[in-house]
Amino acid sequence: MVGRAKKAQITWAKKSNRDRADLIIKAYKEIKNRSKQMAELIHKEMGKIHEEAVNEVDSSIKRIPRIAEDVVDALKSEETNDGVTRTISYWDPLGVCASITPWNFPMGMPQTLIIPSLIAGNTVLFKPSEEVPLVGIEYAQILNKTLPEDVLQVVIGTGDQGRELVESDVQLITFTGSQSTGKHILEQAAKEFKRVILELGGKDPLIILDDADLENAAEFAANNSFRNTGQVCVSTEKIFVMEGQKNEFIQKFIKHAAIVQVGSMINQSQKEHVLRQIDDAVSKGAKILFGNPKDTNGNKINPVILMDVTPDMNIMVDETFGPVACIITVKNEDDAIKLSNLGHYALGGVVFSSNLEHARNVARRLEAGMVGINRRVGGASGSPWVGAKRSGYGYHGSVSGYRQFTQLRIVSESA
User: Fold this and answer.
1) Are the CB atoms for 25 and 68 separated by under 8 Å?
2) What are the extents of the domains in the chain?
């Protein structure tokens, strides 16, 4: 497969960024025609509730033309002239890219990694998660209706196939998933100085300052903790609330949590991981305020809210990736920030406050790549998706992010 990808890349690289982008946009018109079938496949294979599956497909389709145009703009050559030397900066293709994608957004995540790589002139070996191979195959088949042969190939298999792909003769590895797998990829890539772009999960805090709108904060907390059954890298997992607001916030939070609909966990193993974290917390003194983790059906766990969570509990520092929210009462924002920054994860965080300047100051003290104020963490169009500490290595989106898929080449001549 790698040999075929290398051969195809020679011809693919000769096309302009504009021509490659146009082929991608053409392919997405076909995906739009098959949006209902794609959403149904995601719903059945992953367990995502149907409404969320439809939203994933629709939002992916809507974003593609903008992503394509942004990549083309980001990779335009730039000239620098100091009067003595004229230099042109080119962002040229790297070669073959291995894209290893997760199961929680089986259409949204692949396009984030695959589309910039293809438009940049690379060929792609795409390994979807073994949990959602049918979505990955269908997605690639639609793209391949307009792409030249072997420009995009699908690798199906488990972690063994993923390791072989990482160790093969590729020039770039893009991966979203666990820290343990990300560490292995970095170790293998270092042997041959391969490029890597990694997003490795989160343990996102929500800090509710004493001047926050508690109704809005509670509604946000319920939606962001439990959407996609909590299987989102920027799910709210730790909620810090001031002592004087605790009772009122809890009342409002439970009200909103009671109406959230969740689907199934991806598999039995993930369900058991979530239940182990809950059991560990309860055994160390945490209280279940809402939900019954023992009341399960198949791989489904309904939303659970824990209270009195402390730093000695596994659930305080390790990613849960399930429908569990932890409430921690604090005396002041300094305590909230200190506890928020525990552990190796530092992808996102949220601050709720009616004082924007104050909220910005708190946000800057969080060890997170992205912070939202009174909203989710995602930035304006054109801004990067970035983690800090062990949550990120490189980033997605933005001019600089799209240029990670290329080799910067400087060509200079006399002015």
Assistant:
1) yes
2) 2-201+387-414, 204-344+348-373
Each residue's pLDDT tens digit in the chain (415 positions)?
A: 899 999 999 999 999 999 999 999 999 888 889 999 999 999 999 999 999 999 999 999 999 999 999 999 999 999 999 999 999 999 999 999 999 999 999 999 999 999 999 999 999 999 999 999 999 999 999 999 999 999 999 999 999 999 999 999 999 999 999 999 999 999 999 999 999 999 999 999 999 999 999 999 999 999 999 999 999 999 999 999 999 999 999 999 999 999 999 999 999 999 999 999 999 999 999 999 999 998 888 999 999 999 999 999 999 999 999 999 999 999 999 999 999 999 999 999 999 999 999 999 999 999 999 999 999 999 998 899 999 999 989 999 999 999 999 999 999 999 8
Among 233, 319, 326, 333, which one carries the catalytic annotation? 233
| CATH of segment(s) 2-201+387-414 | 3.40.605.10
Query: What φ, ψ does residue 84 adopt, rounded to 5°?
Result: -110, -40
CB-based contact 329:252 (threshold 8 Å): no
Q: Active-site residue 97, yes or no?
A: no
Catalytic residue among 45, 131, 138, 199: 199
Centre a 10 Å sphere on the Cβ of residue 283 and count the other Cβ atoms it contains.
Answer: 9
